[in-house]
């Protein structure tokens, strides 16, 4: 019996040993490799965005793919063709010339310095009015409180549609018309001005400060840089853009009174200061008080349809603001080359 028991144990041990050998042979031991950069991980692609890159599956023939890294893209901005400086006299205390598409600066002079805005203020007033639920076909009567002695297009006691007053306010830069529109907006003037300042802060136009909606107060201030951005915001609104392109408008007080001609205060648009720019490519807003000097913010387009925004603050005469803005725009459009134009790629490579 002892021999049989020994034989059983030997057979059982051999069986256990065989099972163990089979198990060990089926297992493959590997060592952990250090983590590789994301650019070397097969099957993924880094997609560039304006902020943090994202990762997504990349498909390829056969199921294998090499990683593709796309660097973050930045707006292609105009590049100078020559180093020719702007060599004409500038009476403006502050200047900003920017590419309209990218806001890239093309010329600056004291562009970050805050100055009185005068009636350029009306750009922000128009933006706030556009944000309110106003019935533009409704009417209102001009009150004594609305009337500013420097505005002659509307008079106390006259009734106008709000649409008519809108055109008078922007085409003729009428303070009385802006006051009447604010009064008809359903907001107090304090509430309206608070919205103007809130909007400026929301858009990060941090130098813009408003104390009233017309621009008569020297407390309405901002830099040429922020005025350029404000102009871009305003011209993105069709109602503002289309109105500021009107050179001659006829206001019509209700009650049978004769129509009243309102000329645009933009003398480039009326060609009272001549330029080579097509009328359809000129759209801007003026401003003047004794404290501000003569201000002008305008967008001008050249023959190749590239547009620049020009802001001149504190020029020494009415005509100077237009001639200086015109000359700066002509210089910028001639000096710079835009993406898509012949030779731009070479300039971009040379600048790297």
Which segments are poorly predicted (pLDDT under 50) over 5 or more consecutive residues? Answer: 27-72
Per DSSP E runs of 2 or more residues, the count of β-strands stands at 15
Strand order of the largest sheet: 5-4-14-13-12
The structural domain count equals 2
Mean pLDDT level: 84
Helix content, binned percent: 25-40%
Label the overall shape: elongated
β-sheet strand percentage: 15-25%
- Largest sheet composition: 5 strands, antiparallel
Order of helices and strands: HEEEEEEHEEHHHEHHEEEEEHEH
Task: Give the name of the CATH architecture of the largest domain.
Answer: 3-Layer(aba) Sandwich
CATH level-3 fold name of the largest domain:
Beta-lactamase
What is the CATH C level class of the largest domain, in words? Alpha Beta
| Count of separate DSSP helical elements | 9
Rg (C-alpha, Å): 34 Å
Q: Assembly type of the shown chains?
A: single chain
What is the name of the CATH superfamily of the largest domain?
A: DD-peptidase/beta-lactamase superfamily
- The span between the termini is 95 Å
Main features:
alpha+beta, five-stranded antiparallel beta sheet, two-stranded antiparallel sheet, elongated, 2 domains, 352 residues, Beta-lactamase
Write up what this structure looks like.
The chain is of the alpha+beta class. The protein folds into 2 domains: 35 residues, no CATH class; 267 residues, Beta-lactamase (3-Layer(aba) Sandwich), CATH 3.40.710.10. Helix content is 32%, strand content 19%. The protein has 9 helices and 15 strands. The strands form 6 sheets. A 5-stranded antiparallel β-sheet has the order 5-4-14-13-12, sandwiched between helices. A two-stranded antiparallel sheet has the order 1-2. Strands 3-15 form a two-stranded antiparallel ribbon. Strand 1 and strand 2 form a beta hairpin. Helix 2 runs parallel beside helix 6. The termini are far apart.
């Amino acid at each position: 019996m002892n021999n049989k028991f020994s034989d059983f144990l030997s057979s059982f041990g051999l069986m256990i040993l065989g099972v163990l050998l089979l198990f060990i042979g089926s297992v493959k031991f590997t060592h952990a490799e250090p983590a590789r950069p994301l650019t070397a991980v097969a099957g993924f692609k880094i997609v560039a965005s304006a902020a943090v890159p994202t990762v997504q599956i990349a498909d390829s023939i056969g199921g294998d793919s090499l990683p593709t890294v796309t660097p973050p893209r930045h707006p292609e901005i105009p590049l100078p063709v020559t180093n020719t400086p702007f060599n004409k006299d500038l009476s403006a205390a502050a200047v900003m010339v920017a590419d309209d598409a990218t806001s890239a600066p093309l010329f600056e002079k004291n562009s970050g310095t805050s100055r009185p805005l005068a009636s350029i203020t009306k750009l922000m007033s128009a933006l706030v009015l556009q944000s309110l639920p106003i019935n533009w076909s409704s009417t209102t009567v001009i009150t004594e409180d609305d009337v500013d002695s420097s505005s002659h297009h509307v008079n106390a006691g006259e009734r106008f549609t709000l649409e008519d007053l809108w055109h008078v306010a922007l085409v003729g830069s009428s303070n009385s018309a802006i006051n009447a529109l604010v009064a008809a907006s359903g907001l107090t003037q304090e509430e309206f001005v608070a919205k103007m300042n809130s909007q400026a802060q929301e858009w990060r136009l941090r130098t813009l400060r408003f104390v009233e909606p017309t621009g008569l107060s020297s407390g309405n201030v901002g830099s040429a840089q922020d005025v350029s951005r404000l102009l871009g915001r305003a011209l993105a609104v069709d109602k503002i853009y289309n109105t500021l392109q009107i050179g001659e408008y006829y206001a019509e007080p209700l009650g049978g009174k004769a129509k009243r001609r309102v000329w645009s205060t933009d003398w480039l648009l009326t060609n009272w200061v001549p330029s080579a720019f097509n009328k359809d490519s000129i759209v801007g807003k003026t401003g003047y008080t004794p404290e501000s000097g003569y201000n002008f913010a305008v967008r001008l387009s050249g023959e190749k349809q590239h547009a620049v925004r020009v802001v001149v603050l504190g020029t020494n005469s009415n005509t100077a603001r237009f001639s200086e803005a015109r000359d700066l725009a002509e210089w910028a459009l001639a000096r710079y080359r835009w993406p898509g134009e012949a030779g731009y790629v070479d300039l971009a490579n040379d600048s790297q």
